Amino acid sequence: MVFIGVLSGVGLWLLQVPLALAHAVLAGLLNFIPNVGPTLSAVLPITIAFLDAPWKALAVLVLYIIIQNIESYWLTPTVMANQVALLPAITLASQIFFTTLFGALGLLMAIPLAVVVKTWIEEVLFKDILDRWQRSA
Questions:
Q1: Nearest 5 degrees, angle CA 89-CA 91-CA 94?
Q2: % helix / strand / coil in the chain, to the nearest 5?
Q3: Pick from 23, 56, 77, 97: most CB atoms within 10 A?
């Protein structure tokens, strides 16, 4: 979220879009909502930039696409692989599952709940049950 907010703020400031700091904070906060948040965060700055100059709206759109591609294809997979160790397929499946089960709140909490389930499975199944089973055999 900080990465998105800082890059959005710097990019919007360089493009001289009015209210760049407010848009950057909004982009960082809306990035918390997976899949939909980044798109929603781009609507307001694009609209305001269009009111200033039509070419600026296109520049803001390109800026947000570049920022989201960097975040989606480099930052998030690196963090997920190193810190959380969740496979991308598990991430997507957990978003679909928890959204179906709990609605919008499930979408917001899908990744943390998936990490909790993964940790619980590792601790209970692998360490408590299977380790004892292997020692007794």
A1: 105
A2: 85, 0, 15
A3: 23
* Whether residue 78 sits in one domain with residue 22: yes
- Sign of the dihedral defined by the CA atoms of residues 39, 45, 50, 53, in that order: negative
Provide the residue range defining the domain that includes 131: 86-137
CA trace torsion 37, 40, 45, 49 (10° rounding): 140
On the 0-12 / 13-18 / 19+ scale of CB atoms within 10 A, 78 is exposed
Are residue 24 and residue 76 in the same domain, yes or no?
A: yes
The structural domain count of the chain equals: 2
Q: Which residue has the higher pLDDT, 133 or 27?
A: 27
40-62 per-position pLDDT tens digit: 999 999 999 999 899 999 999 99
Cα(109)–Cα(115) distance, rounded to whole angstroms? 10
Q: Are residues 57 and 111 in the same domain?
A: no
Say yes or no: 3 and 58 in one domain. Answer: yes
Residues 79 and 93 in one domain: no
What pLDDT, on the 0 to 100 scale, is given for residue 82? 75
Q: What is the mean pLDDT of the chain?
A: 87
